Amino acid sequence: SAVISQKPSRDICQRGTSLTIQCQVDSQVTMMFWYRQQPGQSLTLIATANQGSEATYESGFVIDKFPISRPNLTFSTLTVSNMSPEDSSIYLCSVDLQRGSSAFFGQGTRLTVV
Amino acid sequence: AQTVTQSQPEMSVQEAETVTLSCTYDTSENNYYLFWYKQPPSRQMILVIRQEAYKQQNATENRFSVNFQKAAKSFSLKISDSQLGDTAMYFCAFMKGGGGADGLTFGKGTHLIIQP
Q1: How many CB atoms lie within 10 A of CB A41?
Q2: Which of B97, B107, B108 is facing A100, going by the closest CB pair?
Q3: Which of these, A101, A18, A16, lies nearest to B33 by C-alpha position?
Q4: Chain-chain contact of A100 with B33 (C-beta, under 8 angstroms)
Q5: Of A107, A90, A26, whose CA–CA distance to B45 is shortest?
Q6: Rounded Cα gap, residues A22 and A6, in angstroms
Q7: Residues A1-55: pLDDT tens digits?
Q8: Signed CA dihedral, A31, B2, A108, A46: sign only
Q9: Quick one: which of A49, B7, B42, B100 has the most CB atoms within 10 Å?
């Protein structure tokens, strides 16, 4: 299994500002994934972060809005830039230890933009 | 692209009853994995059960079992002897197999309420 520490657990931010979310894993993993869960909705994949290369973004998500860093095999950050109230969501990071085994999730960051 | 459909937004049953949550999916892939995740109010995503598409035998984990119908692209979750702690959102999810780097595709979820 994997233990994922995600920080902050929640934050309230002013519109127009940026927030960086951190995700730390207790083991080395190749791929890390970032998801968004809008209020009352399901999880939607934002991007896949592979150490040593640019993140791969899903349709509807762009690097300027959600820049991702992946400096090593145990850590990643997601920044939500120039926030608006529509960005109010839960953001979760996730890892696969082995393809198809299971995805392990951080506890999520509840972001409220006012 | 894959799609996952959960047609039951909310279900409510009495404690100790058996409940079945439905999930259908659409894919052109032959190699894939299916999952059920539970999300309680703490918002932590917890794996309930997983199924490998190439395995015909339905997965079972204690009180949780699935009915995997590959031809029908159906993947329902049965919870036996339901408990109050089973109250949560349940998400059905799909993952492509092979050596790719794809994440999970989730259904919209079913809010399961276990009544005392």
Answers
A1: 13
A2: B97
A3: A101
A4: yes
A5: A107
A6: 6
A7: 789 999 999 999 999 999 999 999 999 998 899 999 999 899 999 999 988 888 9
A8: positive
A9: A49
